[in-house]
């Protein structure tokens, strides 16, 4: 809302002056704090089109879903995350008064008022209600309230609401996320497709997407999604996920849907059949062909039915559903005994496969007894047979299912009560909790000896050593490891935390919906192509699609992870795929949490999710891929560092530094061939197909979304170039702008209207000879004051030179202002400085790689070519190593004899 709309809204709400001032302060204030991820929550930022800013969230299954609802709710006018805190007071469980400042999750403005909102899960609220009964309370209607928050809001005539995950429909929210690329973005749809689909739906109302696409060859899934987003078609978004074409039904309008649904409900009520067979419980009475049947088990693949007399039969569940939907099989009289059904369900679920096998054998014999087939049960003891028949009849009379009476009851036989003395048993449990399960990590033998001494002192009989270790094994493994070794050691035994509902998909519903990015140091030593000098291990940056496990971008560099690696990874992604991901999952690295990175993601409407630290399962998709890269590719090359992981066994013959023959450019060439061709076409166990096939099929099902394509042009490259911490620089007359200690000039600065003004600036981290300034509505290229010295120099090299100058000045106790002249003079004598020399050699290696990335003629070889290349790769590496292994005593490189980097382009 603009100021006039806000004033009009305030008049409609009849708000007091102090309330208007409060809301105005909230609207103009930035978030009061930055959200943080903890052990089990994924935080991040969402680029809101409604608000025009990024909105923070601390939970990607509660707060983020609430953001999606508010983003697409027409009743919500504005919403602000982390509004200014206010003080609340309440009593805890012990009756002690507590007062502190509280920051709600959101402040929401709606057509009918404004309120603070706090979102939590029902499970969390139940725990907090016990701990702080004065803060969270559950009403008789099942809703939650916060009296301290309500007391603060009532001072201003506003509301304070506690919202729970029970209000979130997982299917509806996921469908909103699925349609996010179509909602609010322009997409092309031809009139012919529109009229064809509507004409077919009028003749076939309620047809599924799968059936429609099969009948209309000129229509694709992308066209259907465009019509749904633009409300040309109606779909019940709360019913089923849109990606499930065989279940999603299409309608011309909502009125058409409601009319057919109402008629269907009336017909179903007349037949006394349920709307869904998933509500059927064991022992439900069914009517099939005028005969009564009992539903014994309704499984995923097979369904077991028991007749009034005779043997049970098993039907394929799909065939059973077909008979049920057609009305051939229906519930008898529409009456079920829930209590009896639950008892039968409990007994059936507790039965093991061996118990079911024995019950089936008994059931066949009992049915033969009823039908007087004496040849079947002639070998059975008559007394045993009479007992089985009695058990069957008793279960039939009490539970309505005689079959469960034949289940073995061996678990009820014998004396199940503990035989050990109570005092000794309780003392043993106490010693296990207080002496064994502690960070001291005492051994079991020492704890048992202490237990025996305590029993002797108390004059009671100690339990045996065997019983002690049996008790240890029966203790919860996760809790025991957590108390003894800490949270990180116990993480492997921690139970999985599933999504908000079982039908949510943690890896998304389509390609490019969730993309993971991370860095790792490869296990291989590399050499310089120019000098043969060892340069160390390179850093690998990967971007992988969570849905298809496809590797989307690969980048190699000698520099430690930084925003430059992130920038290059995203550039390669757009260059190869022409798309930006909807959600980017990152870890807690500082390179992912900068204003530059967040601005870039918000510019292309990408949600950033930060996975919690020390929890590899949240990033298992890319963490496993790092291991696959090493085992399938890196460990097959000379110079891999497997041997150095056991330094005591390391010898010269297996030393990776002695065997290193690869340089950065060659390694990147073959690594991209493996990632984009070999790995992409290989069978993936988790997918049941290759990543490339799953990616292609996923696009056809979820829509190509071509209207969200991004051109790899100068506009995109400029968006990925970083800026200075201030983001702007002042145009100095005759000197230009100053960026990273260097002055840059452009003829556009001659304009008197531009001089002494602040202009937005950007620079290229791989070429410090140029910078860019936004002047007169366009980006202009600026040349460095010492262009011949800094052209082709990377930002890392210039920063190292600046750091080296500071160290020299610090040792000589001189105070010298750092400027372009000092840097240029220092870099001119770079051969005297080891750090700069090593960085220069690494930048020379990276230059080939960057030139290949920016070349428009670069292409990926075919799969056959790559297979044949890798067949001889190991042999070539060994031949090269045997012919020439560079000496470790390398002469210093005189860089003054080398041409500048610009001539390598």
TrEMBL record:
GO biological process, one term: DNA integration
Pfam families documented for this protein: Mu-transpos_C, Tn7_TnsA-like_N
Domain Integrase catalytic, chain residue ranges per copy: 507-699
GO molecular function term, any single one: nucleic acid binding
UniProt-recorded name of the protein: Transposase
UniProt organism field: Microchaete diplosiphon (Fremyella diplosiphon)
């Amino acid at each position: 809302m603009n100021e006039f709309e806000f004033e009009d809204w305030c008049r409609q709400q009849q708000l007091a002056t102090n309330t208007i001032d409060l809301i105005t302060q909230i609207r103009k204030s930035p978030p009061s704090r930055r959200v943080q991820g903890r052990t089990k929550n994924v935080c991040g930022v969402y680029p809101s089109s409604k608000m025009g800013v990024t909105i923070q969230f601390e939970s990607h299954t509660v707060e983020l879903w609430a953001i999606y609802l508010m983003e697409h709710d027409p009743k919500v006018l504005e919403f602000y995350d982390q509004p200014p805190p206010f003080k609340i007071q309440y009593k805890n469980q012990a009756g002690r008064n507590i007062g502190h400042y509280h920051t709600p999750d959101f402040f929401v403005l709606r057509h009918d008022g404004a309120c603070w909102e706090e979102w939590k899960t029902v499970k969390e609220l139940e725990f907090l209600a016990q701990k702080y009964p004065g803060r969270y309370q559950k009403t008789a209607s099942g809703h939650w309230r916060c009296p301290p928050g309500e007391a603060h809001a009532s001072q201003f005539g506003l509301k304070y609401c506690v919202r729970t995950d029970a209000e979130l429909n997982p299917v509806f929210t996921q469908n909103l996320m699925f349609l996010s690329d179509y909602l609010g973005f322009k997409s092309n749809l031809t009139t012919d497709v529109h009229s064809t689909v509507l004409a077919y739906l009028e003749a076939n109302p309620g047809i599924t997407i799968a059936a429609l696409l099969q009948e209309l060859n000129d229509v694709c899934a992308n066209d259907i999604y465009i019509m749904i987003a633009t409300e040309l078609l109606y779909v019940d978004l709360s019913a089923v996920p849109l990606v499930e074409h065989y279940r999603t039904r299409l309608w011309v309008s909502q009125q058409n849907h409601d009319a057919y649904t109402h008629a269907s409900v009336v017909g179903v009520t007349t037949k006394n059949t349920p709307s869904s067979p998933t509500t059927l419980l064991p022992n439900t009475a069914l009517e099939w062909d005028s005969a009564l049947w009992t539903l014994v088990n309704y499984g995923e693949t097979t369904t077991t039915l028991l007749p009034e007399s005779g043997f049970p039969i098993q039907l394929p569940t799909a065939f059973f559903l077909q008979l049920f939907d057609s009305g051939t099989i229906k519930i008898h009289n529409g009456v079920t005994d829930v209590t009896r059904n639950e008892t039968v369900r409990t007994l059936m679920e507790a039965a093991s496969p061996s118990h079911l096998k024995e019950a089936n054998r008994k059931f066949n014999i009992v049915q033969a007894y009823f039908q007087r087939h004496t040849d079947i049960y002639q070998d059975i003891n008559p007394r045993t047979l009479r007992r089985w028949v009695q058990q069957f009849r008793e279960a039939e009379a009490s539970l309505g299912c005689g079959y469960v009476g034949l289940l073995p009851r061996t678990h009820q036989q014998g004396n199940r009560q503990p035989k050990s003395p109570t005092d000794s048993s309780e003392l043993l449990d106490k010693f296990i909790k207080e002496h064994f399960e502690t960070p001291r990590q005492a051994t079991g033998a020492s704890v048992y000896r202490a237990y025996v001494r305590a029993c002797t002192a108390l004059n009671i009989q100690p339990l045996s050593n065997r019983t002690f270790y049996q008790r240890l094994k029966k203790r919860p493994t996760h809790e025991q490891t957590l108390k003894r070794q800490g949270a990180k050691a116990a993480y492997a035994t921690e139970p999985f935390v599933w999504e908000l509902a079982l039908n949510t998909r943690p890896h998304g519903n389509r390609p490019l919906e969730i993309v993971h990015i991370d860095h790792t140091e490869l296990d291989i030593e590399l050499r310089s192509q120019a000098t043969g000098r060892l340069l160390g291990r390179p850093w690998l940056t990967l971007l992988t699609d969570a849905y298809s496990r496809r590797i989307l971008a690969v980048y190699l560099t000698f520099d430690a992870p930084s925003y430059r690696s992130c920038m290059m990874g995203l550039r390669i992604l757009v260059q190869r795929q022409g798309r930006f991901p909807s959600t980017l999952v990152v870890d807690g690295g500082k390179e992912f949490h900068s204003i530059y990175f967040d601005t870039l993601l918000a510019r292309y409407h990408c949600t950033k999710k930060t996975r919690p630290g020390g929890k590899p399962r949240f990033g298992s998709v890319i963490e496993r891929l790092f291991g696959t890269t090493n085992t399938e590719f890196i460990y097959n090359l000379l110079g891999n560092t497997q041997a150095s992981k056991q330094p005591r066994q390391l010898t010269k013959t297996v030393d990776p530094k002695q065997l290193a023959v690869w340089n950065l450019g060659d390694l990147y060439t073959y690594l991209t061939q493996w990632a984009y061709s070999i790995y992409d076409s290989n069978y993936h166990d988790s997918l049941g197909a290759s990543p490339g096939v799953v990616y292609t099929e996923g696009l056809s099902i979820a829509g190509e979304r071509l209207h969200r394509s991004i051109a790899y042009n100068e506009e995109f490259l400029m968006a990925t170039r970083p800026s200075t911490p201030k983001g702007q620089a002042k145009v100095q007359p005759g000197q230009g702008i100053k960026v990273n200690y260097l002055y840059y000039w452009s003829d556009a600065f001659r304009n008197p209207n531009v001089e002494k003004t602040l202009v937005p600036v950007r620079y290229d981290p791989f070429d410090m000879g140029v910078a860019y300034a936004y002047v007169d509505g366009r980006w202009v290229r600026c040349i460095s004051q010492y262009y011949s010295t800094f052209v082709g120099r990377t930002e890392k090299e210039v920063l190292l030179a600046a750091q080296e100058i500071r160290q020299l000045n610090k040792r000589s106790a001189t105070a010298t202002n750092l400027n372009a002249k000092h840097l240029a003079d220092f870099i001119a004598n770079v051969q005297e400085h080891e750090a700069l020399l090593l960085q220069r050699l690494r930048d020379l290696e990276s230059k080939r790689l960057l030139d290949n990335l920016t070349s428009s003629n670069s292409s990926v070889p075919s799969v056959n070519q790559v297979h044949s290349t890798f067949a001889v790769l190991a042999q070539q590496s060994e031949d090269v190593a045997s012919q020439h292994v560079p000496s470790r005593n390398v002469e210093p490189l005189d860089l003054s004899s080398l041409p500048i980097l610009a001539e390598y382009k």
